[in-house]
Amino acid sequence: MKTPFKVKVNSTSEFEVSSEDISALDSVKTTNTSFHLLKDNTSYKAKITETNFNKKEYTVLINNNTYVVNIENNLDQLIKSLGFEIGASKKVNEIKAPMPGLILDVMVKPGDEVKVDTPLLILEAMKMENSILSPRDGVIKSVSGNKGNTVDKGELLIEFE
Question: What is the residue range of the signal peptide feature (predicted)?
Answer without folding.
Answer: none
